[in-house]
Amino acid sequence: MAANTPLPTPELQEKTATEPGWKVILWDDPVNTIDYVIHVLRKVFGYEREKATYHTMQVHEEGLSVVWKGGREQAELFVDQLHQHHLTATLESDA
Q1: Does 84 map to a domain?
Q2: Domain with 61 in it
Q3: Sign of CA dihedral 81, 46, 30, 69
Q4: Three-class SS state of 29
Q5: Residue 82 to residue 79: CA distance in whole angstroms
Q6: Are 22 and 73 in contact (CB under 8 A)?
Q7: 1-18 pLDDT per residue, tens
Q8: How many domains does the structure of the chain reveal?
Q9: Which burial class, exposed, middle or buried, applies to 87 when counting CB atoms under 10 A from its CB (0-12, 13-18, 19+)?
Q10: Phi, psi at 34, each rounded to 5°
Q11: Where are the beta strands (DSSP E) in the chain?
Q12: Residue 68: which CATH number?
């Protein structure tokens, strides 16, 4: 039996398509080790070691890395989780 899932209305689809995305930015700090940051990125975002290492090294060398892009609610959750692990992260509109 198929579930009756309502289809999004064109108005909803248009609004969703035009809403700005959000970026989670991870910033360098003098406290956390490279290994710890890799561990946190893997835990919070579910990244493979290679992707977590890429972002960690970008933070280390350039001072910041955009570690995730998407909807605001999820971005806020990720920033909060990074803060809980004592990492410096901010949320920024991608507009």
Answers
A1: yes
A2: 20-93
A3: negative
A4: coil
A5: 5
A6: no
A7: 555 555 544 444 444 455
A8: 1
A9: buried
A10: -60, -45
A11: 22-27, 64-70, 88-93
A12: 3.30.1390.10
Instruction: Look up residue 88 and give its amino acid.
Output: T
Compute the distance between CA of residue 40 and CA of residue 50 in angstroms, rounded to an integer. 13
**64 — phi, psi (to 5°)?**
-165, 165
- Residue 41, burial from CB neighbour count under 10 angstroms (0-12, 13-18, 19+): buried
DSSP state of 55: H
Report the distance separating Cα 8 and Cα 49, nearest Å. Answer: 37
Token pair of 29 as six digits: 């700090």
pTM over 0.85: no
pLDDT (0 to 100) of residue 95 = 81
- Give the pLDDT confidence score for residue 19 in this predicted structure: 61
* SS3 assignment, position 52: helix
